[in-house]
Design brief:
Layout (H helix, E strand, L loop, with lengths): L2 E5 L2 E4 L4 E8 L7 E7 L6 E7 L5 E3 L7 E6 L4 E6 L8 E8 L8 E2 L3 E6 L1
Parallel strand pairs: 2-11
Antiparallel strand pairs: 1-3, 3-8, 4-5, 4-9, 5-6, 7-8, 9-10, 9-11
């Protein structure tokens, strides 16, 4: 089992920045792909990006490419989502998740953290 806890959400003005954290526990993450997703009110959950824990390769959705950056810190077993140039349409609950294969459903999910971007 992998337990995931997000933090760092909040209210920010358009153009501002936030950094979300996803703290993991329960298992070593070396075999996992960690992802960020978001869900806005009335919309389906949307993939934001992912990072391969071993090696650190990343992949982003077009909607956030160039504005968001995913990183991880081995010593803290924590993944980050640095969000810059935020837009009102980035408003959503952000979730982190883990899977052993990026082409498979994500097995473990955090509880989510709210990000609200005001115009």
């Amino acid at each position: 089992q992998v337990q995931l806890v997000e933090s760092g959400g909040g209210l920010v003005q358009a153009g501002g920045s936030l950094r979300l954290s996803c703290a993991a526990s329960g298992r070593t993450l070396s075999s996992y792909v960690m992802g960020w997703f978001r869900q806005a009110p009335g919309k389906e959950r949307e993939f934001v990006g992912r990072i391969r824990w071993s090696g650190g390769s990343t992949y982003y959705a077009d909607s956030v490419k160039g504005r968001f950056t995913i990183s991880r810190e081995y010593a803290k077993n924590t993944m980050y989502l640095q969000m810059n140039s935020l837009k009102p349409e980035d408003t959503a609950v952000y979730y982190c998740a883990a899977t052993l294969r990026s082409d498979r459903p994500y097995d473990y999910w955090g509880q989510g953290t709210q990000v609200t971007v005001s115009s």
